[in-house]
Amino acid sequence: MSTTFQLDTATSRAHPTPAPMKRLTIPAIRARKDDGVTAEPIVMLTAYTARQAQLLDAHCDLLLVGDSLGQVIYGLSSSVPVTLEMMINHGAAVVRGSYHAAVVVDMPFGTYEQSPEQAFANAARLLKETGCAAVKLEGGEAMAETVAFLTQRGIPVMGHVGLTPQAVNVLGGYNARGRSDAEAQKIVDDAKALDAAGAFAVVIEGVVEPIAIAATKAIACPTIGIGGSAQCDGQVLVTEDMCGLFERVPRFVKRYANLAEEIETAAATYAGEVRARSFPGPEQTYQPRKG
Ligand code: KIV
After folding, report:
1. Ligand 1 centre from 249 Cα, in Å?
2. Atom 2 of ligand 1 has which residue's CA nearest to it?
3. How would DSSP label each residue in the chain?
């Protein structure tokens, strides 16, 4: 069934036809994993704009407004410079463009690590100013106190362990984590600490497969893998990677489309027609309305 959208220009809200589905809640996502079993894997993709959210919404359980928007949208070299204001603007756009998926917004570097109080103030702004359902933050045991502080005060939190891109300056790059026994054990312990602190789900990024499986078995809440294992309780990808918009993508990314080629072909065809003065043709020529 295809969905069409009408944009209400007064509110910038897109109204899908047929009628919107009911939006998933965070407790419903958490409850997908029951007694260690997730019968229906959780589908998550990143979204940064209203239109992208409209296209992804019906297919996803969770839309993540990831701080990967720093690289993907703003051309930054890492997510470190991403600001709370960027996340608020894109988070609000994604909430406006979606009706079904629960929207999670990343807390950017420097907005939550200092203290649980700092994290609460900034997470509350994300919830109030975007309408999102939950926040995501990076880090394991070191963040457990903050995760408990937020969840006990009405802010659902998704954790993120393994390769944590905001820590690129400490990690020295984006290589897979957990190659030593000690590091592998630390990642599983990090996931356990977040689970015990009340996280509703934990992203496990860029780890060797046995770690993702061990963490998935060790914790009660769902794990969402990215370069982890198909055995995780759900999966996430950066949508632009998945759609083939970039030449270089992490090894674990599967491309489901080649949008870069399609956009380049469309632009080249348009440019050729403009230069040949064959666009706009008579049917596309602007006709002022009468009256
Ligand atoms: O920022 C992001 O897009 C993420 C996902 C890759 C998990 O954190």
Report:
1. 13
2. 66
3. ---EEEEETTTTEEEEESPPPPPP-HHHHHTTEETTEESSPEEEEE--SHHHHHHHHTT-SEEEE-TTHHHHTT--SSSTT--HHHHHHHHHHHHHT-SSSEEEEEPPTTSSSS-HHHHHHHHHHHHHHH--SEEE--BSGGGHHHHHHHHTTT--EEEEEES-GGGHHHH-S-PPB--SHHHHHHHHHHHHHHHHHT-SEEEEESB-HHHHHHHHHH-SSPEEEESS-TTSSEEEE-HHHHTT--S---TTPPPS--HHHHHHHHHHHHHHHHHTT--S-GGGS--PPP-
**Ligand 1 within 6 A of 202 CB?**
no
Per the annotation, the verdict on 205 as an active-site residue is yes
User: Rounded to the nearest whole angstrom, what is the distance from the C-alpha of residue 191 to the centroid of ligand 1?
Assistant: 16
- Selected residue with higher pLDDT from 255 and 279: 255
The pTM of the whole model exceeds 0.85: yes
Tell me the average pLDDT of the chain.
93
